[in-house]
Amino acid sequence: MNTKMNRSYNWLLPGIVAIISCGLVPLSAYAQAGQDKAGDLVARTDVTPAATVSMPNTPTPPPPTSTYSWKGAYIGGHFGYGWGRANTRFAPLPTAAQFINLAPTTLKPAGIEAAFSGSRMTGTAVLVGITQNNGASWNGNLRAHQDTKWFGTLRGRAGFTPTSKVLIYGTGGLAYGHVNYSANADFRPQGPIQYPAASRKTKTGWVAGGGVEVGIHKYWSLKAEYLYYNLGNESITGNPTPANPPFQVSYTFQTRAHTFNAGVNFHF
Questions:
Q1: Are residues 178 and 112 in the same domain?
Q2: Considering the domain boundaries, does residue 58 fall inside one?
Q3: Spatial distance between the Cα atoms of 257 and 209, rounded to a whole number of angstroms
């Protein structure tokens, strides 16, 4: 009996080794089998494979999007610097040939501006010595003055965004402003006559330019901008004081300006 048991055990051992090499069950489970059935049951219970833990699928986050938008309405303020051209043409009436003491002349007042939503641009030009038609000089002076009290614009703009927070744009549209004009052909140093004239008007014209705007917050941006505006011409006539018919002087004023502005905008 002992011999058979030994043979049986020797046959089982290679099978146990083969199973262990496959990694399916541990050797202790079959060692316990030769002693009692309860141990075999316990051993088999020990080798129950652990349940596979299923990891939750982590959703892929969407690509980041810009929180800044250049669409919609905005409001803001600006300050800046500019210079204007206010050429003033002096034309003797009824004709230069009849008004021999004044040849047609142009003065060029230059204006400067310090603006916050439209303060003023002002310039004055004075020419001492009036030139006559024959080229001789008359002892008098010509004076022209122009003062832009305020101006504004109503314009559209279009551009491109090299980055989400930078806008480079061109702009253009309507320009308007309130301008004071005055001029005088003053012959009084040599005679009693002068030809003063003055006018105050709200003028309209056009504006064009461009700039760059940079977003610094979801609702706020900073900008730098160049504008050229043209409010057209204004003509007024100076009558002589004291009266000296039929002579008059016609003054034609130009209103042009270049401005550079920096400002801040709030986007709704």
A1: yes
A2: no
A3: 12
d(C-alpha 209, C-alpha 226), whole Å: 5
Q: State which H helix or E strand residue 117 sits in.
A: none
Considering the domain architecture, whether residues 177 and 263 belong to the same structural domain is answered as yes
Range of the domain at 18: 2-46
Kindly give the pairing relationship between strand 88-93 and strand 74-85.
Answer: unpaired
- How many Å separate Cα 19 from the centre of its chain? 78
The count of residues in the chain is 268
> 229 and 256 in contact (C-beta within 8 Å)?
yes
Same domain, 145 and 197: yes
Q: Judge whether 52 lies within some domain.
A: no
- Secondary structure percentages of the chain, helix, strand, coil, to 5: 15, 55, 30
Could you read off the pLDDT of 111-128 as tens digits, one per residue? 665 544 566 678 899 999
Q: Is 64 a domain residue? A: no
Chain segment 28-62, per-residue pLDDT in tens:
444 444 444 444 444 444 444 544 555 556 666 66
Q: What is the mean pLDDT of the chain?
A: 78
Contact 257, 81 (CB under 8 A): no
